[in-house]
Fold TrkA-N domain protein.
Amino acid sequence: MRLNNSKLIIIIGCGRLGSELALKLSKAYNVVVLDKEESSFERLSKRNFTGFTRVIDTSDMAALKDVNIEKAHMVYIVTPDDNLNFMLAYGIKKLNSGVRIAARVNDPLKKSIFIKAGLNLFCPIEDSVMDLVEELEKEVVKYE
Amino acid sequence: MRLNNSKLIIIIGCGRLGSELALKLSKAYNVVVLDKEESSFERLSKRNFTGFTRVIDTSDMAALKDVNIEKAHMVYIVTPDDNLNFMLAYGIKKLNSGVRIAARVNDPLKKSIFIKAGLNLFCPIEDSVMDLVEELEKEVVKYE
């Protein structure tokens, strides 16, 4: 990962996934992490996070404009709430059609709704299932 | 995935991950899914699941013996509770050292404890972070 401070990366949701992503990306990029709860940032403050945090009402589009979402190179939407993630992805796409978005879908059954709306998404559970099936199919040395 | 009904696969935890995995694997293997809540199996009953389900107290090792954990080819431990997952992986390894185990660690900070105990694990959050960083680094066509 090369240092690229000119790129602004916004991460919405500072749970386990958002915080790990923020820690990793803040080494090379200009990272801003948003969450509605101040306490969520404890996951970052105890470790080597070098980006910025901001408590905002993530369901408020005006608040998102206020954090320069229009200047972001990429936005990761990784809250645990699929409905919020969908609304945010849809709304941010309207605000800034040029930004790259990765929205998390927690429930695989909701994936088709995201796809129909033309949203760029990733589904961690489906990815895990694929990995786990591979784990079974490769006949590795027996677990000791 | 070839049909291989002689292999018994046990999945502990029927949340989103466990149920998707069960649906996928039951097409080719003999699958038993365990959960402490009967209602968890609704994720399976509404779809094409062809394996077996069983409500058991997953923290009770005697109950696990009762579901032939010793005859399993592979056990997936995918509850949302890392402490339970750790205890189960450790306990099942003692019961049957030949079985293959994949235990889920939800909190990346706990990963080292699993590793120290010599447990085979997977960490969905770390995998997702890797995928998401790659997503940023590949300079694909801008999201439209």
About this structure: Chain B is about 40% helix and 20% strand. Chain B touches chain A through 40 residues (CB under 8 Å).
